[in-house]
Queue: 4 jobs
Job 1
Amino acid sequence: MTLDSNVPETQKIAVILPCLNEGAAIAEVVASFRDALPGADIYVYDNGSEDDTAARAAEAGAIVRLEPRRGKGRVLIRAFADVEADIFLIADGDGTYNAPDAPKMIDALNQEYADMVTGIRMDDGKGDLYRHGHRWGNNLLTQTANLLFRENFSDVLSGYRAFTRRFVKSFTLQPRGFEVEMMLTLHGAEINAPHVEVPTRYGTRTTGTQSKLRTYRDGMRILAYALVLMKEAHPLRFFGWLALALMGIASLLMIPIIGEYIATGLVPRFPTVILATGIAVMALSLFLAGIIVDSVSRRAKEQKRYAYISQGKPQA
């Protein structure tokens, strides 16, 4: 896909940078996005930094706002509610995302009539820019999301994204931390919003900054949220899988008992029969619950879709 870098001047663009103790990098990050998108408003949301992040961002010309409740998800929820723009671009304040790629992402949003563009992180080939465990963890969570939601995402945890106003204003989920990227991706899939992926350069953090991501803790939290979102978005599939697993366990318990009954006419191990019967009843109950909850979920999806399209089409 070849795109001309021609961002319409009539579009109001907001760049949102969540920050926590990014004083060493934020001035340079603000300047780089100002050079890449001269007409954009640069918002720095200080998430309770203990250094001079807010002061350095203000000196660099950013609009500084405060969100004292810790967590990247809470910052973006606040920003999405407060900021008004035609296009929203989110990135991190640590210098890892390449600002010159921002016009390319906005071009893709406009030319492909998309509602979300995800910057797929590509390093320069000179080394592994991910911390230990991050690359395989990202691949695991991405493939898990693809399996659960039957999609074909490449990088569900990328924090470099561009959105239309209608996507942002219809995002009603309530993430707290780094699970927000997963939620944004799956929200788009749930409301059937057009989505484009664009390769972007991903670099090392600016010296003096430190990652706030905890590989295993946050990875498990993100995976748990993916399962919760699947339960809410596709309850019949979720409860159906559980029911199928339980029915399989019940069948394994009953097969030898049935075989012995056929051979001898006797029913041995009554406790096992009772256990298998109870598991089978649980499986049936879960399947029926999935059918009931699925009807409720369909109505909720319709309401989310309506909230999305009621914002009007994106500005051309």
Job 2
Amino acid sequence: MTSASELAERLRPAIDDERVLAAIASIPRELFVPERERTRAYENVALPIACGQTISQPLVVARMLELLRVDAQDRVLDVGTGSGYHAALLALLADRVWTIERHPELSAQAQRAIAQLGIDNVEFLVGDGWNGVPEHAPFDAINVAAATGDEAPAALDLQLADGGRLVAPVGTAEQHLIVTRRTGERFERIRMEPVRFVPLVHDEDVDEDERWA
């Protein structure tokens, strides 16, 4: 498998959303992986990137996008920019995307990769994604690309618009994708398939030396 379009076709049996498949087919994944991993860019596997992080398995990325049910008019928050691949796909599906990453190096690399594609509806932020981006809320959809532990951050729930959806890997020893839907002040949660993600690091979980390294 050597192209984005071939990757999309391989995912088709598991993904029903044609807009998601079209986005996968349109984004060259090799731009978002380190040079040493580019021969594996279109394998359906997670790959290591800088700062001890990973670019997620394409099937899991596609599934999260499908569960988010992103509309072309939506405002979307992407928590955990990582490689920027998820943000690039969201940018094709939504009106505007804010993506936040606590590692400045990753954020800068992602911004360069997305700029190469001519995508201009993504705003890059460096900070603690656990707290979301309240100054730009509410969001129609929130994607969390790192494991949140036993519960998704409450701050993210509150930044959903009425009717908004949040998808996050939740759990410690075992993780599952959890879909949260907001209706007024009510939050409905549905547990989906098992996954494995690196942890979402909260600034309160690191010491001062690491925080400012």
Job 3
Amino acid sequence: MMGVFQDLVAIQREIYLACAGRIGDFAKTGDWAFLAAYLPMGILFGAVHALTPRHSKAVLATYLTGSTASVPRGLAVSSVLSFVHVGCLF
């Protein structure tokens, strides 16, 4: 099981480095094509990152599955979780 997590971390690192390169290219040239290429990689980075341990996806999914929460409430709970997760990085 540890090998799977190490593979996820390695993939995440490669995506991060590629994203950093694109942002650097955009900063140097101001060419919006570099930034446009970065956005899908950022989504991929987030998806791989979410698969790593210590994310509360399972808790949130279990809560939303077992509750009578409506779609707007589910989206609100997910948004708050995302904000808190990203906000804790700063």
Job 4
Amino acid sequence: MLELDRLTRRFGDLVALDELSFVVEPGQMFGFVGSNGAGKTTAMRIVMGLDEADGGAVRWRGEHLDRTRRARFGYMPEERGLYPKTPSLRQLTYLARLHGLTRPRANAAAGQLLERFGLSDRRDEPVEQLSLGNQQRVQLAAALIHDPVLLILDEPFSGLDPVGVDALSEVLLERVEAGVPVVFSSHQLELVERLCHAVAIIHDGRLVASGTVDGLRTQRQRPVLRVVCEAGGRTDWLAGLEGVRLLGRNGDEYLLELAVDADDQQVLAAARSTGRVHHFGTVLPTLSELYREVVQDPARAAPPTEVTV
């Protein structure tokens, strides 16, 4: 289990992290979401020991991190760190050797990863001659070469085509199934929603929402109702309903936002007064919609909670 406990980091007057806390459980795919400059990379660098926090702590399996524990982590930085003129096989073998693997084991592990990512036939080419997507695959292989107990990946899907995204997703899901926690940041929120068990959303260095993806979607403080009734497109049946706001209408389909204290049964009664009600139910937000809400108006989101499976 990885735990970030009230991490704080300042750069002069800029507060990059403001008591950031969340927990990543074993075997959990965890999405770390925020705009550029929100503090994601700073938090990841602190976890990996590449930067120091001004306050708070990072713990792995209940213990404070040191160099030995971090050596078992796999890290993929946003600013890629490959040697451009070195062939992929030689480069990965070298990195595996740095992690203590014998030369035969290192060479075998490098070859297996390159085969897994479809790069066996280009293993002896300098990395700079590969496409950006293939360089991305080699970078991920570098993070996996020593069979890490935790993966920290900063924008790992950036620049990948759909086939590359699928290949990377498959590898990460295999690691999760083996009990390895995987933390990755991404601006592709549809991908985060599809892959992740849980997420943390940060804004200006502060946690504004965290929890399981399904849990966050159902904790929306201002629920949205989809009502299909025989009102003939009229909106007068909504008159007098307190705390109800019309978001949109398409024929006899109405999207209504309810205040926290609004009574959905009054809405149902009003809809029934128009005739038959063909649909009446809550519309769950996508992760993208939820992100926009909590970033633009954090007060609209449920209070941040601990992440649980």
